[in-house]
């Protein structure tokens, strides 16, 4: 079927037929492959399924095997620039298609307000009312990608059950097509799925009908280009019709360059609702524009405003808009794009998050192939992150003295952006520079200024010569300021994180003591997102020749304060345990210490005192998950142990003690809630699954058992909490 690739209509070849033009598959998909995905079948399924759902927009993302970035393959119902910046989406990114793929479930957003609340980046870039569903493309337990489907604002705010079933069927069909071949990967714009055209009719009669009407009519394709204009429309616009054809009206007519006018076009396409506006055509004419969207584009009705003002739903005409300042972006899309990038950068936490966002979203949005972030340290230029450059190139830049005349140094020290549209232009200004062998052909050097301080340089490189328009230079300079602020915050965060991690590592045991009659194994897993540092801790304490203590806990919060409190709790438990205190006293005294410190934080904890000579134990629990016990016969049970309040709730409280035998071969599993809890996870089912793993693998070496128990948690891509596991096995002395 015909699709559009990089603005040109092409026919996707049947993958089972040999390509008569060698290199065509490589041109479209990045590189020739013996088993290219059936793009025609995918496009047909996406287009037909979208129509059956009465939706108007859809897009298909693929997830390469073992990959963590969704790649936009094709889009239906909108031009690609509407999703600029979202061609490559990392799985942790808070966007509907990423959430659907990561969590393995359908995501539904019922209105504009819900979109703003849950996905502000989408709401900022597309501030229109529409409904959206995103669903993973999964076949045989393997996620091959994700898709989204959008409906006009007139669709109900709830997804009907029959629509859900049809959506799941469409997702299954697309996933099956992707599963049968290697997922396609291509460079450049995504493929645009074209709607089916109707049967041919009398075009001459239709044109004559339109030209007899007293008002002007224009037809725009999905990209906003004029494909037909009546003579009356050309007369009202005061421009020959041939100058309009194939171009966007706001590119031809300076008085239509106000972003508010283009915004009405964008609103009509996204919401699929008619829109209108009034514009002033110099020197003395107001014109009313009414836009009617459809699957293939928009029909525009143009009338003199005096004749139609009473019928317009919008406000009365405003004074003629002032001409935009030179160098400022006038496109609504460009303004929304800056807002989208600003929102994305506010989500960056560390320096590498900034690098990833710049490389995955900002660089592709401007057509760049490589980026590097450079800062000044010790009088030299230092690289703190890069993407897209050949190996060794950025390393040669790293360490460049700030006294050397290079574009990277000059942008950092002067605060003035520099744009080079070709290698020849760059070499005229900088005949000798370390970056000369970087294989790129055009560059933008953006100074990074935050709070009035020069913090670095962002280098955006292009593989081919690139013309930087006045608008693009202004936008890139603005984006440089956003990157600078994000980078400044990220470097502070990384410094604090390094301090916190150092503190945490110094507090967790580097090795557990060797005790006669007891085998031990431990694991710690940090959370996958939203984490500074973890508050989980564990330890094994040698009390005397025949006794030992085992403790595990979870401090509220993920910051330096939580790590410091973790150390204080661990020290307290050590002190009381070494003094021979029973479990209830260990927790009671530690709780009193927390009340005295008045940190405002809470902690859960379980302390087990082991009598290695008599093979028995005593347990006290403060709001912590109960241990699992595997007996020598292989039977596993959740220990029925009454517990007390979390540490830090009230100063004076008691903690019941549970006693249990520990015959040789008994294994006790102490763990924190991160091992069994997660979004959408039933806690009882998760604990039962953990018990099943302990029963199945518990007879093996304890290190192997630990690996098996944490494997399930490691597979969870959306693990919001850190995890600690401590295994104890009673063995002959």
Automatic annotation (TrEMBL):
<keyword id="KW-0464">Manganese</keyword>
<feature type="domain" description="PAS">
    <location>
        <begin position="202"/>
        <end position="247"/>
    </location>
</feature>
<dbReference type="InterPro" id="IPR052016">
    <property type="entry name" value="Bact_Sigma-Reg"/>
</dbReference>
<dbReference type="GO" id="GO:0016301">
    <property type="term" value="F:kinase activity"/>
</dbReference>
<keyword id="KW-0460">Magnesium</keyword>
<dbReference type="Pfam" id="PF13185">
    <property type="entry name" value="GAF_2"/>
</dbReference>
<protein>
    <recommendedName>
        <fullName>protein-serine/threonine phosphatase</fullName>
        <ecNumber>3.1.3.16</ecNumber>
    </recommendedName>
</protein>
<dbReference type="InterPro" id="IPR000014">
    <property type="entry name" value="PAS"/>
</dbReference>
<dbReference type="InterPro" id="IPR035965">
    <property type="entry name" value="PAS-like_dom_sf"/>
</dbReference>
<keyword id="KW-0904">Protein phosphatase</keyword>
<dbReference type="GO" id="GO:0005524">
    <property type="term" value="F:ATP binding"/>
</dbReference>
<keyword id="KW-0067">ATP-binding</keyword>
<dbReference type="GO" id="GO:0046872">
    <property type="term" value="F:metal ion binding"/>
</dbReference>
<dbReference type="InterPro" id="IPR003018">
    <property type="entry name" value="GAF"/>
</dbReference>
<comment type="function">
    <text>Primarily acts as an independent SigF regulator that is sensitive to the osmosensory signal, mediating the cross talk of PknD with the SigF regulon. Possesses both phosphatase and kinase activities. The kinase domain functions as a classic anti-sigma factor-like kinase to phosphorylate the anti-anti-sigma factor domain at the canonical regulatory site, and the phosphatase domain antagonizes this activity.</text>
</comment>
<dbReference type="InterPro" id="IPR029016">
    <property type="entry name" value="GAF-like_dom_sf"/>
</dbReference>
<keyword id="KW-0479">Metal-binding</keyword>
<dbReference type="InterPro" id="IPR001932">
    <property type="entry name" value="PPM-type_phosphatase-like_dom"/>
</dbReference>
<keyword id="KW-0418">Kinase</keyword>
<dbReference type="Pfam" id="PF08448">
    <property type="entry name" value="PAS_4"/>
</dbReference>
<dbReference type="InterPro" id="IPR036457">
    <property type="entry name" value="PPM-type-like_dom_sf"/>
</dbReference>
<keyword id="KW-0378">Hydrolase</keyword>
<keyword id="KW-0597">Phosphoprotein</keyword>
<dbReference type="InterPro" id="IPR013656">
    <property type="entry name" value="PAS_4"/>
</dbReference>
<keyword id="KW-0808">Transferase</keyword>
<dbReference type="GO" id="GO:0004722">
    <property type="term" value="F:protein serine/threonine phosphatase activity"/>
</dbReference>
<dbReference type="Pfam" id="PF07228">
    <property type="entry name" value="SpoIIE"/>
</dbReference>
<keyword id="KW-0547">Nucleotide-binding</keyword>
């Amino acid at each position: 079927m015909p699709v559009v690739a990089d603005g040109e209509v092409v026919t996707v070849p049947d993958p089972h037929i040999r390509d008569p033009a060698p290199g065509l598959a490589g041109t479209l998909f990045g590189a020739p492959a013996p088993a290219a995905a059936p793009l025609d079948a995918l496009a047909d399924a996406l287009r037909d399924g979208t129509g059956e759902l009465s939706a108007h927009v859809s897009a298909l993302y693929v997830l390469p095997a073992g990959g963590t970035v969704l790649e936009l393959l094709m889009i239906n119902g909108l031009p690609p620039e509407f999703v600029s910046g979202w061609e490559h989406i990392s799985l942790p990114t808070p966007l509907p298609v990423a959430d659907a793929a990561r969590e393995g479930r359908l995501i539904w957003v019922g209105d504009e307000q819900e979109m703003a609340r849950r996905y502000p980046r989408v709401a900022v870039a597309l501030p229109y009312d529409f409904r959206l569903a995103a669903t993973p493309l999964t076949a045989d337990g393997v996620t091959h990608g994700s898709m989204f489907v959008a409906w006009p604002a007139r669709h109900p705010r709830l997804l009907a059950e029959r629509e859900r079933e049809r959506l799941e069927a469409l997702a299954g069909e697309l996933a099956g097509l992707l599963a049968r071949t290697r997922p396609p990967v291509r460079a450049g714009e995504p493929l645009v799925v074209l709607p089916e055209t109707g049967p041919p009719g009398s075009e001459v009669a239709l044109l004559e009908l339109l030209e007899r009407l007293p008002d002007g009519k224009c037809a725009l394709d999905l990209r906003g280009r004029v494909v037909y204009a009546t003579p009356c429309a050309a007369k009202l616009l005061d421009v020959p019709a041939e100058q309009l054809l194939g171009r966007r009206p706001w590119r031809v007519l300076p008085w239509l360059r106000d972003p508010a006018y283009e915004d009405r076009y964008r609103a009509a396409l996204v919401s699929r609702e008619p829109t209108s506006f009034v514009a002033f055509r110099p020197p003395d004419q107001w014109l009313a524009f009414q836009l009617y969207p459809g699957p293939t584009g928009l029909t525009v009705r143009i009338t003199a405003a005096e004749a139609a003002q009473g019928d317009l739903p919008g406000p009365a005409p405003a004074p003629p808009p002032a001409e935009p300042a030179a160098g400022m972006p006038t496109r609504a899309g460009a303004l929304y794009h800056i807002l989208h990038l600003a929102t994305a950068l506010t989500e960056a936490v560390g320096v590498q998050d900034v690098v990833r966002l710049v490389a995955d979203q900002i660089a592709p949005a401007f057509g760049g192939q490589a980026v590097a972030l450079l800062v000044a340290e010790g009088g030299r230029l230092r690289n703190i992150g890069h993407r897209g450059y050949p190996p060794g190139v950025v390393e040669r830049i790293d360490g460049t003295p700030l006294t050397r005349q290079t574009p990277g140094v000059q942008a950092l020290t002067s605060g003035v952006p520099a744009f080079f549209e070709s290698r020849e232009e760059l070499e005229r200004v900088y005949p000798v520079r370390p970056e000369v062998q970087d294989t790129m052909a055009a560059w933008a050097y953006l100074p990074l200024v935050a709070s009035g301080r020069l913090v670095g340089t962002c280098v955006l490189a292009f593989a081919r010569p690139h013309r930087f328009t006045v608008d693009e230079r202004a936008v890139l300079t603005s984006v440089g300021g956003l990157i600078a602020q994000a980078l400044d915050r990220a470097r502070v965060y990384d410094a604090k994180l390094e301090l916190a991690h150092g503190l945490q590592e110094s507090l967790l045991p580097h090795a557990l003591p060797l005790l006669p009659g007891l085998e031990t194994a431990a694991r710690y897993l940090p959370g996958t997102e939203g984490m500074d540092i973890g508050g989980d801790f564990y330890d094994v304490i040698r009390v005397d020749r025949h006794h030992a203590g085992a403790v595990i806990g979870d401090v509220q919060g993920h910051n330096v304060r939580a790590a410091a409190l973790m150390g204080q709790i661990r020290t307290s438990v050590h002190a009381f345990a070494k003094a021979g205190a029973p479990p209830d006293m260990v927790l009671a005294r530690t709780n009193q210490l927390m009340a005295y410190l008045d940190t405002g934080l809470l902690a859960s904890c379980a302390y087990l005192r082991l009598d290695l000579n008599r093979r028995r134990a005593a347990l006290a629990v403060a709001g912590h998950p109960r241990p699992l016990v595997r007996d020598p016969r292989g039977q596993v049970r959740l220990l029925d142990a009454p517990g007390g309040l979390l540490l830090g709730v009230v100063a004076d409280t008691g903690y019941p003690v549970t006693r249990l035998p520990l015959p040789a071969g008994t294994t006790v599993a102490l763990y924190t809630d991160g091992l069994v809890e997660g979004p959408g996870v039933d806690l009882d089912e998760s604990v039962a699954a953990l018990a099943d793993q302990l029963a199945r693998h518990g007879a093996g070496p304890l290190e192997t058992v630990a690996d098996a128990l944490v494997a399930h948690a490691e597979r969870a891509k959306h693990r919001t909490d850190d995890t600690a596991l401590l295994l104890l096995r009673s063995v002959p002395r």
